[in-house]
Amino acid sequence: MSVSDKTAVITGAGSKRGIGRATAHTLAAAGWNVAILDLDETSAKDAAHEVAERNGVQAVGVGCDITDETSVQNALAVLDDSMPPVGALVNNAGITSPTPFLEVTGEEWDRLFAVNVRGAFNVTRRIAPGMAERGFGRIVFLSSVSAERGGGVFGGVGYSAAKAAELGFTRALARELGPRGLTVNAVAPGLIDTDITGGALEGERKTQLLAGIPVGRNGNVADVADLITYLCREESGYITGATYDVNGGAHIH
Ligand code: NAD
């Protein structure tokens, strides 16, 4: 068994400076073929092209709205026809919002859960059966330090609640699918330098946050990508149901 005859699916890996794209590269460097699902079809294809060119693996990029079951079904059908069987899934696509609880609307709350939780459900529900059938799978969820410490970085209550839901999802799924050869883990990044905040986290607030990080810097995407790739190794089969912090010591518990 080798990862070179398997595909890793990464959602939300279009974003140029995002955690997903960096993860696609590190997984490909470790030998995985890669499938990128992103709302932004052009960036998904661009990322796949970049990954294939740089790492010499098969890569495909597909436009997909993970909140929409039909869109997920259609995107995964493309893989069925063109890629090796799926051995890893990284539930990375996510959105955040800093809206305070006393101002948040039901629509915004639902949207946070639609992408971060229901989206991960839509993709995992379609991919896990094949993994279970083949007796091998690695699933990694992108939660957040916000889930563990109750916000306080950028995201508000809705984001923290959705990211905490992903932890429950991870743990229960690990228990259910362990006997079928799947591991399911979560990573909980702290402040990582990407475009998810749309440039809204700058100035005084950022300086304050950095002051609370023992290693003295915010994280970069490679810090997170390496951890995810480690969890996807075949040799990491005894690690499951775990949450891995990658936050520079900003939250130690
Ligand atoms: P990003 O904004 O750079 O990338 C997110 C990607 O998800 C984008 O490419 C976007 O197009 C895609 N996406 C959004 N909605 C989608 C949908 N409905 N269907 C398909 N794709 C969709 O974000 P990032 O900072 O790289 O974050 C990646 C993950 O890590 C997220 O789940 C985020 O919550 C989590 N995280 C990030 C940080 C951080 O500080 N950056 C910290 C903790 C957790």
UniProtKB/TrEMBL annotation:
SUPFAM superfamilies: NAD(P)-binding Rossmann-fold domains (SSF51735). SMART domains: PKS_KR. It holds the Pfam family adh_short_C2. It comes from the Bacteria. GO terms for biological process: fatty acid elongation. Gene3D superfamilies: NAD(P)-binding Rossmann-like Domain. Residues 6-190 form the Ketoreductase domain. One of its GO terms (molecular function) is oxidoreductase activity, acting on the CH-OH group of donors, NAD or NADP as acceptor. Keywords: Oxidoreductase. Belongs to the short-chain dehydrogenases/reductases (SDR) family. This is 2-hydroxycyclohexanecarboxyl-CoA dehydrogenase. It comes from Blastococcus mobilis.
